[in-house]
Amino acid sequence: MTELPATSTRKLGLVIDLDTCVGCHACVISCKGWNTENYGAPLSDQDPYGGDPSGTFLNRVHSYEVLPDTGPAQLVHVPKSCLHCEDAPCVTVCPTGASYKRVEDGIVLVNETDCIGCGLCAWACPYGARELDAAEGVMKKCTLCVDRIYNQNLPEVDREPACVRTCPANARHFGDLADPDSAVSRLVVARGGMDLMPEQGTRPVNKYLPPRQRDAWADTSVLAPFLTPVAEEPRGFLGWLDKALDKL
Amino acid sequence: MHPAPSIIAFTTFSGLGFGLLFWLGVDPTPPKGWVAFAFFCIGFALAVGGLAASTLHLGRPERALKAFSQWRSSWLSREGCCAVAALGAMGGYGACLIFAGLNIAPLGWLGAALSLLTVFTTSMIYAQLKSVPRWYSRWTPVLFLSLSLAGGALLSGRVIMAMVLMLIAGGVQIWWWHRGDGALRASGTTLGTATGLGGRGEVRAFEPPHTGTNYLLREMVYVVARRHVLKLRGLALILMLVLPVALLLLPFHHISAALAVLCHIAGVLISRWLFFAEAEHVVGLYYGKR
Amino acid sequence: MALKQPRIDTSPKVSDEVRKTTCYMCACRCGIDVHLKQGVDGKKHVAYIEGNRDHPVNKGVLCAKGSAGIMQHNAPSRLRAPLRRTGPRGSGEFEEITWDEALETAVSWLKPLRESAPEKLAFFTGRDQSQSFTSFWAQNFGTPNYAAHGGFCSVNMATAGIYTMGGAFWEFGQADWEYTKLFMLFGVAEDHDSNPIKMGLGRLKARGAKIIGVNPIRTGYNAIADEWVGITPGTDGLFILSLIHELLKAGQIDLDYLSRYTNAPVLLNGDAKSPDYGLFLRDAAGKPQVIDRTTGKLAPFDQKGVRPDLAAKHRHAGITHRPVMHLLAERYLDNKYSPEAVETRCGIPAARIRRIAAELAQTAFGEPVILDRPWTDFRGERHQQMVGRPVSFHAMRGVSAHSNGFQTARALHVLQILLGSVETPGGFRFKPPYPKPPEAHPTPHCHAKPNCPLDGPHLGFVRGPEDLALLEDGSPARIDKAFTWDNPMSAHGLMHMVISNAHAGDPYRIDTLFLYMANMAWNSSMNTRGVIEMLTDTDADGSYRIPNIIYSDAYSSEMVAYADLILPDTTYLERHDCISLLDRPISEPDAAADAIRWPVVEPDRPGHVGVRAFQSVLCDLGHRLGLPGFVRDDGSAKYADYADYITNHMRKPGIGPLTGFRMGPSGLTHGRGEPNDAQIDSYIGNGGFFVAHVPQEASYFKPWNSAYQDWAVSMGFYDSPQPYLFQIYVEPLRKFQLAAEGHGARQPPEHLRGRIAHTFNPLPIWYPPLSDGHEDPVEYPIHALTQRPMAMYHSWGSQNAWLRQLHGHNPLYLPTNLMKQHRLRDGDWVRVISSHGAITVPCAHMAALNENTVWTWNAIGKRKGAWALDRDAPEATRGFLLNHLIHELLPPKGDGLRWANSDPITGQAAWFDLRVRIEKSAPPEESQPVFAAQVSPVPPAARGLRWKVGQ
Ligand SMILES: Nc1nc2c(c(=O)[nH]1)N[C@H]1C(S)=C(S)[C@@H](COP(=O)(O)OP(=O)(O)OC[C@H]3O[C@@H](n4cnc5c(=O)[nH]c(N)nc54)[C@H](O)[C@@H]3O)O[C@H]1N2
Ligand SMILES: Nc1nc2c(c(=O)[nH]1)N[C@H]1C(S)=C(S)[C@@H](COP(=O)(O)OP(=O)(O)OC[C@H]3O[C@@H](n4cnc5c(=O)[nH]c(N)nc54)[C@H](O)[C@@H]3O)O[C@H]1N2
Ligand code: SF4
Ligand code: SF4
Ligand code: SF4
Ligand code: SF4
Ligand code: SF4
Ligand SMILES: [Mo]
What we know:
Structural class of chain A: alpha+beta
Number of strands of chain A: 11
Order of helices and strands of chain B: HHHHHHHEHHHH
Number of domains of chain A: 1
Largest sheet of chain A: 3 strands, mixed
Largest sheet of chain B: none
Shape of chain A: elongated
Structural class of chain B: mainly alpha
Helix content of chain B: over 70%
Number of domains of chain B: 2
Number of strands of chain B: 1
CATH topology of chain A: Alpha-Beta Plaits
Number of helices of chain A: 7
Oligomer: heterotrimer
Shape of chain B: globular
CATH architecture of chain A: 2-Layer Sandwich
Strand content of chain B: under 5%
Radius of gyration of chain A: 24 Å
Bound molecules: ligand MGD, iron/sulfur cluster, molybdenum atom
């Protein structure tokens, strides 16, 4: 149980495109909505209409500024949920076996009926992917929508995580990262997908596609011919116009 | 990390309690009868009280028994098992001493070993966490063990041993703080690696994902000002080391001995408060709080 | 070792039933699947909301607001019964009354007005989505004083687009996401088309197409732009004209396109003394004339086979007529538009302006998109291919909400047109029923008579001074002074001026202000405190200056407290609505589409009288008042409720609110047809919407494509084909200029002559935001802006338990240089001072920000007591509005006049002209100014929330 499976044949996870994410929080709220109504206890909110509202969310979107050596500052939105690590420290620390990584697909889950709410797994996770629900007293985390992706009651197209289905910019992709031919694996290769905090040794399954190069203003010679003047002042321009019209 | 009173109490008192039980277990001439009763009571009260305090931290304390199941992989589970075993062994050992005046030394040794092991497993709960670089060190068990042994010695009335161990523990503590201050940097985890954006330039947190607070911020992003830290560290050292040693150097008196114990406990409590409050969880990086 | 793991149910039942309707949290109007589950009470409750995959707008995706609809629908701030004010205005003290009492009260106020002076009712509606219906009601009442919120929102954009090319960005059209290679975004944080824009950006990213974001602030869409142009606010027009300068100079314009589809070849009267100076040369039929390059002779622009000449002049009766193209070249080749001349002002280096121009040219002309799709144009010519220029643009309030916004938007459209990228593959595409030139829109009507409907639609597009809404004596006919010399082309009215004009009794006093769905006592007003004072101000006899205020809201907003009578609306899941092609439809470039909402759950306010859909209430009121459109000959109600109206109302024979599933001679038909009793059921069965696809041959070149024109007629958009030319040169503007120059019977007042002559230039110009001439730019050197947060909709997001955790307060973001200059750190407080007022608010640092700009999220700040939030809610203690700094009038300039803080052409509120200065402040207890708390008409909310309907 809290031991990690030696291997999992499938490694289901998300690929999140930092070049495309506009930071709209759609994934945050659809996750909240789905998981409030589905897997386990609802994601509760404390003081929801008061001075210090705070609730359980399984997916949160941060934004950062990058200050490159040259060029203007950039802004990057970084959505973050459980990365379903292969070496998941959150699983091995769990005293009850409530936390586990599924053998068949590598999804890391909390069995809420076993969880004592000690919080240790949340401490062990470097990413802040686990939140203890204040009303239920058990640990909540991204389930990779395990109750959607295999759900026979949903049409086949909808068997994907709620956050992926809803993302308006299509910055979130779901699939099997153990299969080198899957669309997600190919995206990771094509776009140089990366790990968050690789030095923590957690070997996340979820990958992040880095933002493409921004603000590359260096002049390119292809462009030069397009600005060769045909005229400097109106009279010359009208002369050019007449000739150009003849050629149409 | 949030310095929760329940956890500070747990680590401090169970450390002291198991330290005391350790010394009782290895005592070649252990007390018997009422004296033993008193000592064992103190040891058990501290150890069990500490453990009980830790359950206050649980979201579902009624399910606490489940925590014994994962001893193969989980230090927290091991700690529970060890504690129960240690308390069992020491309970048997103590009962024999109290009620029968009988010293079953091997049982004492076993209990002592289990007591130390318990303290060790407690420390490993923290020392195993790579996500908290300040804790992620073999010095964390050394710190816990040395404090536990020193405190136990003090409680069990071993004056010389207590002074020596307190000096050692103080040294370990100073080293631990020193190492800890550079631990986050040395870990290599930065906002740059946390976001994967480090290669492009300096990364700074702009907007957090939510304007209010949440579990992560409450639990793992506690920030103490540097100047408070230095004051508290000094105070902790004075209370847990300087004052007790000074008091012990005075001619023996029950009051000064009791004072030494109280000072030491107060000092360890402060040290534990700092242990948590100062510990930087790397998740704080995501919130720009590191 | 085999690991033991719990068995989990991976196929739980998702819901008991899915009902498909339309989202309401913004004007994007995505399709939603509302999952219902049986609750413990045996009733069906909303369990989960997700996007409708079949829907033309969102194709399954949903934004944060849409997904949080469940919390909107169940918000504790929902009103529960009609309310009658018991305390003084603004106190929030009310008593609940029955619907009969409420409606009779309204009738007792309104009936006498209709019988004596219908204009004494001012009926203004907010961002509702039933304007064709509410305006129909107002027209039948007979008041000229009706408009929706467009005047303070983005009328510049809409109007500039319609006058220039028969449609604008926004809901009228969008980039050709499929083929665009270079996309430029001006001044957009979110917009109405929010999910489609995000989906489009995602498609561009997937193809690796390039995105350039022009915005002082680099968040959201601009954050993912490959290039960021951090322009100085208010200078986009100059930047765009500089791009035009460079393109013209290099001859990088689409001459074929210009000659065929635009008025670049149309001849202009060049006689400076003529009353027609600068007007089109027209033939006897009124058609603008061009020279046919094949014959060298004059011809009407649309003559079969004509090849309009862009270069040739024409001399007639001693007057030289030159094509628009000549003026264009002369205007923009001038060196005052060179990149060097504009770089400092715009804050963009000349080399970058030039590079962007080159990239536009390279993409448009070096990489054209060519589709093998034959089509026939309006002159009868058959084209074998559709040739497109794959550069596209989108712009919104960053351009629109400045007092030079109309001309800036025009400049942008002219740029698009010069590149030949409107309605061509890879460029910008209209969504049916657009394109629609101004001529296909009505002109404004304003003649009120007792007991009579108005003489025609209130709003429209003026063709010249003759269409202004002026009374015989030249005074404004409308309370908001729309269509007057102050702002002649105010096509959407001026909702932001209604309260101040009514309070001032200028142009006249009104009796009843009837508002729907607009938080005018808070975030939708400029000068919020001033507006609050006007709403509560009394005459000498102690009666209110604005005697009666009726308001319909669904929630306990700030505005509720300022009304005398509240007509509580349902939530969007509890009523019928119609997203009509007569109004603001949900079409896509390849399809005309409309949609409905329907009560997917019953309105349910246990223990209270309950709420009613506002439109149904209007049907009822219309009947009680005896309004012609709402009573039958026998005096009975014409429409039982709004659903009845949606089904049975006909605007013109065969044209009703919904186009789908009408009744034809031989069964169901679409477009034109008779009412069908089962129409709404058919919509429900179809997923809540209806789509009619544009035929392939009609997909591009719509204004000139015969196949499109014929299809549009068949759909009922026009009664006959309406091909037209894009108006690079806008003649109605010239007509106003001529008036200002002294021509014509209707003359502007003296103080406005100069301004009209200057700003109504028929070719786009740039002038500094008007406030720059009133405020001292040295004393107030910093621009202050707001942006919409993607996860919040104006004021209503704050009552949503999930969304308010994301944006519970709003710091003022300052650029690095200002943080340093004032020695500020995140969380410090600053005093922000404008010529009108001051606020003290928390600040935070942002590096990716124009160095003369500060900004904050819009409408997060709340008044204590509103929205069923606790009084210590961060929205009320740390949150704030910039609106306190913005006045509806510019500061006095010594000419004895208070000029409106609006665009002089359209009256668009110039929110983003705001200039401020900043000082560090000691942290106050709360954001300043502080307003007294309102009494809440709804009880306090629950302390915890665990929403689960199932089991
Ligand atoms: N500083 C600054 N101010 C601005 C702007 C800006 O950019 N900066 N933007 C301006 C613009 S463009 C706009 S459009 C305005 C928007 O400002 P408003 O039009 O005032 O928008 P909302 O805050 O959404 O308020 C609308 C009201 O509708 C109510 N409502 C919600 N749902 C329903 C319903 O189903 N039925 C009824 N009857 N009522 C309902 C809400 O409770 C709320 O009271 O703000 C303007 N104000
Ligand atoms: N989520 C959400 N969506 C909404 C709304 C909402 O409240 N929430 N409101 C709806 C409404 S009513 C409207 S009107 C639309 C408005 O949609 P937007 O047009 O996106 O409106 P704003 O958020 O006001 O964004 C204006 C943008 O213009 C930029 N800007 C300001 N001045 C200048 C300038 O001089 N030049 C340039 N280039 N940029 C400038 C600002 O930085 C900002 O990014 O959104 C609609 N959609
Ligand atoms: S992201 Fe955190 S919670 Fe998820 S598997 Fe990795 S360590 Fe565990
Ligand atoms: S909180 Fe629950 S899941 Fe996490 S470690 Fe403790 S028992 Fe395991
Ligand atoms: S996969 Fe499901 S649970 Fe995980 S973040 Fe996405 S929506 Fe939430
Ligand atoms: S929904 Fe998509 S675009 Fe929006 S924040 Fe989430 S990942 Fe980013
Ligand atoms: S964009 Fe969002 S709020 Fe607007 S209609 Fe669509 S889902 Fe609703
Ligand atoms: Mo708006």
